Amino acid sequence: MYDNQGSLREAARTAIDKQGFSSGLTKGAPGARLILSKNSQTSLALVRTSSDRWVGWMRTSNGAWRGLDDGDLIVVAVLAAEGQAEVFGFDRATIQAAFDANLAARRARNPKLSLNAPIFVCLDHVAGDAARSVGSNLKAKALWRAVVPLAGRVMTQGEQPETRPRVKEPQAHSATGNPCGQKSSEELKNDLADRVRADVAAAMGVAVEKITIEIRVTL
User: Fold this and answer.
1) pTM
2) Which long-range CB contacts under 8 A does 44-47 form with residues at least 24 apart?
């Protein structure tokens, strides 16, 4: 769990409640899966969070989207202006179509892509014909959008817990901008850690949420 994930999950639940649902936590990662109730009907929401507007989805050892079929509503919460989160609600078919298309494009460019490599799709439009542009602009396909306050102290990307200097969060992105640019070295490291966690979880036969990776580098 990265530093802002808990706050973003809480923001996602607040946004869901604003849509008229009553939400409840399930067992496992707190806030990642929510039981919803509305008009005497129950459903399951899968919550994804992001600090850079790239939405990631893990895959199983045979290449299937991990847990996606379980969800009726997919909710994505991202950092917006200081002290706020931007939250989007999607139907499952929309998310699966975007990730299927992105995965197909990546496989076309790299036939040796690992079966369980995580895939990332941007909420905003990504220009160009590179594989990472395929499926982008997810926000345009959202069922709803809400901006809600974040609870507690939110750390910016790269900030160290020991010091926690007070700095401003990224400003809200414009609708026509392209904030999902080339990933930074820190983001690439996080992607690598995600892949390692997925491999270890598959080998051990446990949920990926139960895997913690600690890497020590000796120079």
Assistant:
1) 0.70
2) 44/70, 44/71, 44/72, 44/73, 45/16, 45/21, 45/71, 45/72, 45/73, 45/74, 45/75, 46/70, 46/71, 46/73, 46/74, 46/75, 47/9, 47/12, 47/13, 47/75, 47/76, 47/77
